Structures are given as structure tokens and as C-alpha cells.
Amino acid sequence: MKKLNLLLIALVMATVNCFAGDVKTVVLQISQETAMHCQNCAKRAENALTADKGVKEVAVNLEEQTVTVKYDDAVTNEAKLIEDLKAGRFEASVAGKKCANCEKHEGAAAKEHKHGEHQHGGDCCEGEKK
What CA–CA distance (Å, rounded) separates 2 from 8? Predict the structure, then answer.
């Protein structure tokens, strides 16, 4: 009987693991317009993300204005995490990700930048500005 119980437990655990998605990590950059200024802001960002059932772990870096999120990609995704932060009154984008128009260009126009900052200027980001 004891072996049967152990076998059933192992079977249940294997089944749960089959349906779980991969745990992914993303770094989200908070925009300058909605920057976190204190520990209360950092806690508000953390709470906005941990309310998402797919979020496994959140690490806020107040100095860098980033939030590192580990999440189950079968339950949530980057776009949803950004929406979660928006609900917490923060604008964010995936750190280091170029806007769609910059990805089409080469050279100086393709410099990495953060949404809302558009450091390189030019017209490639028209329509992308928030």
C-alpha cells in the first residue's frame, strides 16, 4: 500500500510538471516618465507583478529602474507583465529591446534605446513614441 501511494504521488508530480510551462526571465526597464523614486514605488511595482499568477519571482532594482521577473510562460508573457506594471502606474519595456522601426534600420539609426527616451532622434521612431 505504501508503494502504491508513493507511485501515485510520483505520477501526480510528473503530470503537473508536464503541464507547467518553462520558467523564463525578463528584465523590464521602467520609463523615466514613471520612474520609481522610493521603496514604496518599488513595492507597488512588485505587488503589481506578483498579482499575476504566472509570476514566480520579482526583483526590483530601484537604482537601475529595472524589474527582473521570473515567470511561467504557459501562464503569462512579457506583454502581460508590462500591462501588470501599467496597472501599477508604471510604463515599462523589455530592457535592451529596440523598437520595431529601429530593427528595420542599420547603423546609427539602429542604436539600442529605451522606449520613451529615443536617444538617437531622427524619424525612424515616429509613431513609436509613447
Answer: 10
Nearest 5°: the CA angle 36, 65, 47 is: 60
% of the chain at pLDDT higher than 70: 59
d(CA 102, CA 31): 18
User: Beta strand 92-94 with 55-61: parallel, antiparallel or unpaired?
Assistant: unpaired
pTM of the model: 0.63
DSSP 98: P
pLDDT at 58 over 60: yes
Rounded to whole angstroms, the Cα distance separating 58 from 88 reads 14
